[in-house]
Amino acid sequence: MNEKMLGLGVSRSVIREIFEYAKLRKAEIGNDKVFDFSIGNPSVPAPESVKNELISILENTDPVSLHGYTSAQGDTSVRQAISDFIEKTYNIGKEPISSPDLIYITSGAAAALTCSLTALLNKDDEVIVLAPFFPEYRVFVERTGAKLVPVMCNNETFRPDFDKIKSAINEKTVAVIVNSPNNPTGVVYPEEDIKKLSDILSKKSKEIGHPIYIIADEPYRELVYGNTSVPYIPNFYDNTIVCYSLSKSLSLPGERIGYVSVSPRAKEAKNIYLSVCGAGRALGFVCATSMFQFMMARCLGQTSDISVYENNRNILCSALRDNGYTVVSPDGAFYLFVKALESDAKAFCEKAKEFELLLVPSDDFGCEGYVRIAYCTSEKQIRDSLPAFKKLAESYK
Ligand code: PLP
Are 231 and 259 contained in the same domain? Predict the structure, then answer.
């Protein structure tokens, strides 16, 4: 048996651990008594158009071809639709930033990431992640034999710390994972940051003699509030591989659909893409669910009603600040990153449990002393939880 895989199966992620505890606790004391902020499961339904498109696909497509295998990399017309959408929506230059021949349709962003990382990495290579980071990056990177190198963000803004990134790069560095809007902080990196990062990576790539790729992990791309915009990285940095999914923006996490898009401007783009195809083959991620491929082509650019999250964010963020909590400025995704009221975030989360507040300690995100609050819940849960947050703060006075 493979001991590493056994280890991964035995030890659940801390988020899943709390999620499971929430289920038990709700059965004991009632759903409405437990304030479960553990998991990033969208609370807003997918728009009606998703259902309507699925019905139309089912009614109007020959079932044998609809439920049959598509090409391993995904249906040709769907890949064309994705590429057209990217060009029309994001391209600010003249040269293309996507191509249907460089798109690989996957089972969500997780599969997009494992395919991209497997495509790029060899044993002992290094991948920089900006901490705090989505904990599964470690699993995805280490599986390939490469090393995950966390680089802490600025500890006030939680935007990238460029000096630290510069010092972390060496000849083994192959990629940097950039996740904006960010899980767990909710921070969106502005264009200025993407440009600075691009400059550094271009210079360092020259110095070390091989390209450093950006893997842009973008499941939260559309989840931004106010006037915030999310720069599309391939416009600024040629060696970019975008990993995208409909899990969050369109509330379809259980349907497992997304894609990898290798920028045609990337060095060795065609071979990188072929390597992604090879990784998909090796990992068994061929031909993502066909009905949802066709649905994706018809619903590109749509979102579920994200004003619900914005409203939740506003209520929770201002109530927490009023009660003395320090909250990292949240412009996107559906997470708040809040300073724990004691140095040990795990102990703070245990204390919060006494008030039926289920929060995730930041340690597994590669950063100590904070908690993540997933506010993709009902507004009622947010409002009902406010007295508990107040009592929790008072218990530290
Ligand atoms: N990347 C980040 C930052 C995430 O937060 C998640 C899921 O929570 C994923 C990737 C995986 O997304 P998917 O459900 O599309 O596989």
Answer: yes
Q: What is the pLDDT of residue 19?
A: 86
Which residue among 39, 43, 134 has the greatest number of ligand 1 atoms within 8 angstroms of its CB, and so is best to mutate?
Answer: 134
Task: Tell me, yes or no, whether 199 and 68 share the same domain.
Answer: yes
pLDDT at 177: 98
Lowest mean pLDDT among 19-33, 149-163, 309-323: 19-33
Same-domain pairing of 39 and 71:
no
Q: Which helix (H) or strand (E) holds 397?
A: none
Atom of ligand 1 nearest to the CA of 182: 3
Range of the domain at 338: 3-47+304-395
Could you tell me the two tokens for 43? 């609370």
- Domain containing residue 224: CATH number: 3.40.640.10
Left, alpha or beta for 147 (phi > 0: left; psi -120 to 50: alpha)? beta
**Same-domain check for residues 146 and 254:** yes
User: Are the CB atoms for 169 and 204 separated by under 8 Å?
Assistant: yes
At residue 42, the pLDDT reads 96
Mean pLDDT of the region 327-351: 96
